[in-house]
User: Which sequence fits this backbone?
């Protein structure tokens, strides 16, 4: 309750509470194809409209419109759909494993699959990724073995993190996938630093990083933005606006005052706002920003406007703070269904092929799950030796750690 003396203060409140009927009729959503595609080296001052509109290619009938249409080969679109389906089926399996006590924690990306998969496909394999905890689609699209991903989540003998990380905090050096940090804002700063170093060494690889809209309210966001803008760092700074930071809606991060993409304007960098459930638009915007970065145009801030369709994590119950059917009425729909609809619309997919693909992926995920379970789960299987906790940080172990190890007798 806000006291009367504070009557002029604005205390944000979500548009719906549990038990209320959700609707989004007043959202200002651009029509598909309405915004033109500017030259990649445009002056940021000319790009203000792209920070306040929403770049879209697919309409809700699965038809592509406008200059942003990347006109991808159907085989590329089918691969994108398959990667998104794999991400969704993998997520469901892993959450089920948590529910039966075989792992401690999990976070699904339902509703946001296009963000990770389309962006991974638009970037080069040499580009460095600094993800948050809802971009498992990056790994899947880059070809990470599902068995390795499951081993990590189960903290078993095949876990490349040796059980030292929270499940879903993946890392994959060979795939240029930087370790995920629970303190998400750090990814912005580290990505900018990596990008500056890459440019300094004369290399072509760029960096791309992801945070949620809630993290824009932290200092790390502004530190990263400042350094990126000042040094023209070749980096894509992605803000995934899925409307909810756990139980805090996007208004608490300032989303009701201005778009998150418009934060870029104050730093003198392009801010692009894109329909995050539109695979084609996400791909096209990422390609645009990557080409700009590789040509010396510096950083781009991308707001991916989407909706978190499931709980924040297995420790969260969203029915306590939002209507149960809010995701169902989200006006930009579901990314998997929209790409599927587009492929059917252009005659490159069918319900029968979709059903077959779902069965094949489910079989693959089940096969990998059985292999991972055989290596151990949260409560079964071999554990790394206690002595391993002192390894892999320092090339030469400092004296204080050596003494601690001796005290443990390992």
Assistant:
């Amino acid at each position: 309750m806000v006291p009367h003396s504070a009557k002029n203060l604005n205390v944000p409140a979500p548009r719906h509470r549990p038990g209320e009927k959700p609707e989004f009729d007043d959202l200002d959503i651009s029509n598909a194809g309405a915004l033109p595609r500017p030259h990649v080296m445009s002056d940021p001052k000319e790009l203000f409209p792209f920070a306040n509109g929403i770049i879209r290619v697919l309409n809700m009938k699965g038809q592509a419109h406008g200059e942003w249409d990347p006109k991808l080969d159907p085989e590329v679109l089918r691969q994108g759909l398959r990667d998104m389906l794999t991400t969704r089926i993998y997520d469901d399996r892993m959450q089920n494993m948590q529910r039966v006590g075989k792992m401690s924690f999990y976070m699904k990306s339902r509703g946001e699959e296009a963000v990770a998969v389309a962006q991974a496909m638009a970037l080069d394999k040499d580009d460095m990724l600094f993800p948050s905890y809802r971009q498992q689609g990056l790994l899947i699209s880059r070809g990470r073995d599902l068995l390795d991903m499951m081993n990590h989540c189960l903290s078993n003998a095949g876990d490349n993190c040796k059980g030292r990380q929270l499940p879903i905090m993946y890392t994959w050096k060979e795939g240029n996938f930087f370790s995920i940090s629970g303190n998400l804002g750090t990814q912005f700063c580290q990505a900018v630093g990596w990008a500056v170093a890459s440019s300094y060494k004369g290399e072509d690889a760029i960096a791309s990083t992801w945070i949620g809209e809630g993290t824009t309210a932290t200092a790390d966001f502004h530190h990263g933005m400042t350094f990126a803008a000042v040094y023209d760092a070749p980096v894509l700074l992605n803000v995934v606006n899925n409307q909810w930071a756990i139980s805090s809606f996007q208004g608490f991060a300032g989303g009701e005052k201005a778009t998150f993409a418009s934060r870029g304007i104050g730093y003198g960098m392009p801010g692009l706002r894109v329909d995050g459930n539109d695979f084609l638009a996400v791909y096209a915007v990422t390609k645009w920003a990557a080409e700009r970065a590789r040509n010396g145009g510096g950083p781009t801030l991308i707001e991916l406007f989407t909706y978190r369709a499931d709980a924040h994590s297995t420790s969260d119950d969203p029915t306590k703070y939002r209507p149960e059917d809010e995701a169902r009425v989200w006006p930009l729909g579901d990314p998997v269904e929209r790409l599927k609809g587009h492929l059917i619309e252009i005659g490159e997919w069918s319900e029968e092929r979709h059903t077959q693909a779902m069965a094949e992926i489910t079989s693959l995920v089940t096969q990998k799950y059985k292999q991972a379970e055989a290596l151990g789960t949260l409560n079964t299987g071999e554990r790394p030796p206690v002595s391993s906790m002192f390894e892999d940080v320092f090339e030469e172990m400092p004296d204080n750690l050596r003494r601690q190890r001796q005290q443990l007798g390992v």
The chain has a mean pLDDT of 96. The radius of gyration is 22 Å. The beta strands are 128-130, 207-212, 235-241, 244-245, 248-249, 271-275, 300-305. The domain at 71-378 is CATH 3.40.50.970 (Rossmann fold).
